[in-house]
Each structure stands twice: as structure tokens, then as C-alpha cells.
What does this fold into?
Amino acid sequence: MSHLTVRHLTKGFGQNKVLSDLNFSVEKEEFVSILGPSGSGKSTIFNLIGGILTPETGEILLDGETIIGKRGSIGFMPQTPALLPWRTVLQNVLLGGELQGEKDRDKAVEMLKKAGLGDYIQARPDELSGGMKQRVAFIRALLSPQSLICLDEPFSALDELTRLEMQKWLLSILGEYRRTVLFVTHSIEEALFLSDRIIVLSPKPAHVTAEFTVPFKRPRNESLFLEEEFLKWKRSIYFSLKK
Ligand code: ADP
Ligand code: MG
It folds into this structure.
């Protein structure tokens, strides 16, 4: 049984048909990217999985149980990190699962230190840069009790160098704290660098047009971007998006 199964999902807003017969699955501890053009319905997929929207037809199963219309079954990190400005960094990361125990607190502090935020544990969000805020939001998602974490284009607003730093950081932290991740992006390179598997969407109304199992060994580093094999994969995925 897959960890997450999406079957025959259809969703529209009035005349605007957004998803049409969408099918995919995510296995436990897998990192899967959904790659699709802007406006193809990627955020809509997350809103359906997160229970904020309900589909017209289809099933969404988490460990075999339906989660349609149920909020709170997944850990979610939105496009812009929603941190509470009046709380400290530490209070913000502990918020997700309403974790209070000393063990959770110690783990949070350890993760914040590893994320280079050791000096900012008691700081307020407005003292942080964009990249730092995202690391805080991501650690909050990692600490949440939900087994599936959904990330919606978390790095798209960052400049190129910060984005690369964040991607490397994400790989290293997941190497240490393995989780199941569903990641949305419109960047082929980002999907290839991070994922175990890539699901390619058609333009709206979206369905799955191709699926790629990424062969690159972990741990990965940025030299991968220059390898012939990487460029070859980038080209195939590019053409699958153009179809
Ligand atoms: P993506 O994340 O791939 O850029 P979205 O899922 O945000 O795409 O949007 C896909 C389509 O669905 C767009 O045409 C958008 O206008 C429409 N849409 C998304 N959410 C809503 C909503 N809550 N109400 C009405 N239309 C929506
Ligand atoms: Mg979106």
C-alpha cells in the first residue's frame, strides 16, 4: 500500500477545469516532486490533499484511509513561510504539532543549530532574512507529527544563490531526519537535484503526462548540475513538459 494515493482526481472552479483524472502515489520516505507549468493546478492539488478544498470526483488516501475534506493530516509548508511575528523562532517551530515536552524542545533547538540558526533561537521572525525564515518554517514542518510533508514551491521567491544553499540544506537535513515529502516546483533542475521521483503535469486541466525515477545517488552535491547525465535527464524532462 502506498503512503499517499491520489486516484481519478477531478477539480474545477466553475467553468475553469483545473484537474482532470489525476493519478499518482507517494511511497513512505520517498521524495516526490510534482513538476508543472504555472497555473496547471499544483497548489490546488495541495489544497485538496490538505483538506482545504474538496474534489468533484476521485480519492485521496493516506495509508489507505480517505483524507478528503480532512484538515491537519499532512504537514504543510506554504509558498511564503507563515511565522507568527510575536513569537520567537523556537516558539514558532514548536507550534506545528503543539509540542511542549522537553524532548521536543531539545530536538527543535538541535535542528535550529544545525540550520545555522543557533544565535536566533530567541529572535522574532522580523529579525531574520528570507532564507532564514524558510528554514524555520521547514523545521516546523519536520517537527510536525504528520508523516507526509507537502512543500509548495518553497524556494521560488529566493535569489539563485540562496536557493541553491536552501536546496543543499534541505538535502542534508532530510538525510538526517528522513521524511516523506511531496514537493511542488516549476524548476526541472530543482526537481532533479532533490527528488527520488518526478511527476510531470500537463497544462490545465492537469493530468500526469510522464513520470521519471531519478537515478542519482545520495548524498548529492552541486557538482551534479554539471554532469552529462544530469543534462541528459534535464533534456528528456524538458521535452516531456513541451508535449
Ligand atoms: P499552480 O499552483 O500550478 O500555479 P493553481 O493551482 O494555483 O496553479 O491554479 C490553477 C487554476 O485554478 C488557476 O486557473 C487558478 O485561477 C484556479 N484557482 C486556484 N484556486 C482557486 C480558488 N480557490 N478559486 C477559484 N479558482 C482557483
Ligand atoms: Mg502554485
Summary: The first helix runs from residue 42 to 49. The chain has a mean pLDDT of 92.
